[in-house]
């Protein structure tokens, strides 16, 4: 197999930016750094030895193509130079940057402060200050929005682990010695739709900063803990790595917000030769987002509702609802769809969520799923599936209007709330159920 690579012109220095994929497919890259010389010495825009233009205010768009005619284009500039600006895809498929305007209702955590920002009313609601440690960059604790599932009515919980307690002005002190300050092992979580207060979770085995979070299709959160100064290239093998993967056929290429459910046929082989596994099968949709310097942006893991029918021949059918009729839970645009059987995911199917157009997404009433059933002679298991079995997704929370962003080093003061969150510390796996 041959792979052809074509260099794209960045137009300006896109070191330390954020990026996202818009509803209709273009890749957007925002912010960056000014020109530099040897050793990172800053230069005026466009000067040598690298001739980089200042990218701090740049907004770049790449429209993918099947030929050699597409390249980065520059749009209007930001009003402020930014590293790591928040870039979050909203429910209408557009993107919000903290350097330009308010967003949908955002959960914002910067330094010690936590607020909800309502973009429609342009109001902030103060929540409890985060306990124990600063988590945002450059203190660099870790943050993850846990999987959104029918069991919790797609109510989001955000987990924070690690970080440090360096004072804001410490980062600007000459001769500042970061290793003098111990990393925190604290983990806390918050569920803003339920309470504005944090919950103390089990701590990490050791204090950690500067890790990176991965949401696995089986619903676990995993992060490596190698010593960063050695810059190793490691391979992670999941618990299901050597298990046969399900390979269902005729997966959908689009999902809507509400509407008729769809049926997924699973063979006995897909169910790993265990017919009762139909009760332990789910579909998940993951928006992978963008990651840089331990800042993970715009990531979502959403499990649609489902029910099942088990057949006497060992096969089964999963009845899968469309996405909840609320685009704020999962923004429209490209995403990955997995079928997970007893914790083992299929190879992903690339899908389009919504109508592929920027703007208010059409929603339909959620369909009522068939009840869970097995035909005569089909084995059963004591555990039930994650699906509701004859349930309806119609009771989706309509106040789920918040998202997650990232924070720049220049936004570390309480009176200048930076927008968002970054990544994850220490090796940690969090079980979120089957």
TrEMBL record:
Residues 103-224 form the Glyoxal oxidase N-terminal domain. The keyword Coiled coil does not apply. Gene3D superfamilies: Galactose oxidase/kelch, beta-propeller, Immunoglobulins. Residues 1-21 form the signal peptide. Residues 373-385 have a biased composition (Low complexity). It holds the Pfam family GO-like_E_set. Residues 245-353 form the Galactose oxidase-like Early set domain. CDD domains: E_set_GO_C. Residues 369-392 are annotated as: Disordered. Keywords: Signal. InterPro entries: Gal_Oxidase_central_sf, Glyoxal_oxidase_N, GO-like_E_set, Ig-like_fold, Ig_E-set. This is Copper radical oxidase. It comes from Athelia psychrophila. The lineage of its organism: Eukaryota, Fungi, Dikarya, Basidiomycota, Agaricomycotina.
